[in-house]
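Duplicate of #3305? Posting structure anyway:
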């Protein structure tokens, strides 16, 4: 049986230890540019991104991985007679998924499967973990893809930026564009849905916005995991995780952050949830 590889992009913010554990797990990096200097995403933490941006006095820019990097990786996999599944960051946040699809057609679209995760960060990591477990269990690529598509539909991403400034400047504001005029008066609670950023609610204070995040979370039934996400807001993240743990004592809950690319588009002080409802396998 051909080996099956998993490819993540760098917005998954996957730990090196996890990457090194699997020879069939790969990462392709997005880019961050500030003034005339460019980094691979993992070369610059979210914290350092904001420091460098302040020093330079200009807003950062991000870009998807060059198609050539996808083509090179895909070709090396196909040349071994193997197949691969790409789990890419939500199309609402980046053109990475489209770049991967273009590269797949260039190399061999029958051996390369590209999935829009419709989320990012810990959500992508959890999908990769499931896929790798199924590969080790000897599941077919069709079985793995079926589960991944179910996970995509069952995964929810809620975002509470401290302001809309970063999303607006980065052109990622999508369905929340109507809020720009009131950027200083509200705390917007946003979510990812079908390739766009949409408004879940708008409240007057950060405390009420956090309450609204938790209120939305508990609407779901059984959950597979909950990722509490924070960007330069660790104390808030710790407090929220503790609150959620009281509600879901049996669910795996993690406190995580994101890489420089997602931080560049959401800004410091951002909080959020990435979580998945239980699915049938």
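Output from current build:
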């Amino acid at each position: 049986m051909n080996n099956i590889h998993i490819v993540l992009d760098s917005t998954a913010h996957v730990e090196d230890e996890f990457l090194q554990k699997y020879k069939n797990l790969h990462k392709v990096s997005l880019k961050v540019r500030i003034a005339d200097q460019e980094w691979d995403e993992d070369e610059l933490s979210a914290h350092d991104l904001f420091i460098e941006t302040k020093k330079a006095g200009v807003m950062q820019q991000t870009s998807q991985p060059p198609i050539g990097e996808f083509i090179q990786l895909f070709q090396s996999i196909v040349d071994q007679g193997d197949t691969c599944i790409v789990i890419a960051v939500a199309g609402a946040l980046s053109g990475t998924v489209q770049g991967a699809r273009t590269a797949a057609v260039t190399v061999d679209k029958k051996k390369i499967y590209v999935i829009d995760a419709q989320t990012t960060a810990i959500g992508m990591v959890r999908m990769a973990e499931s896929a790798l477990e199924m590969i080790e269990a000897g599941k077919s690529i069709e079985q793995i893809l079926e589960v991944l598509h179910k996970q995509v539909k069952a995964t929810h991403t809620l975002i509470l930026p401290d302001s809309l400034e970063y999303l607006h400047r980065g052109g990622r504001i999508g369905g929340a564009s109507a809020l720009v005029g009131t950027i200083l008066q509200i705390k917007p609670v946003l979510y990812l849905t079908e390739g766009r950023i949409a408004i879940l609610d708008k409240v007057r204070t950060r405390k009420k916005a956090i309450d609204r995040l938790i209120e939305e979370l508990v609407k779901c039934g059984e959950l597979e995991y909950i990722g509490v996400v924070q960007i330069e807001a660790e104390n808030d993240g710790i407090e929220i995780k503790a609150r959620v743990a009281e509600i879901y004592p049996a669910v795996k809950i993690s406190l995580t952050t994101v890489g420089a690319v997602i931080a560049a588009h959401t800004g410091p002080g951002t909080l959020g949830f990435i979580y998945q409802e239980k699915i049938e396998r």
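Confirmed duplicate; merging threads. The chain has ten helices and 13 strands. The chain has two domains: 4-141, 155-277.
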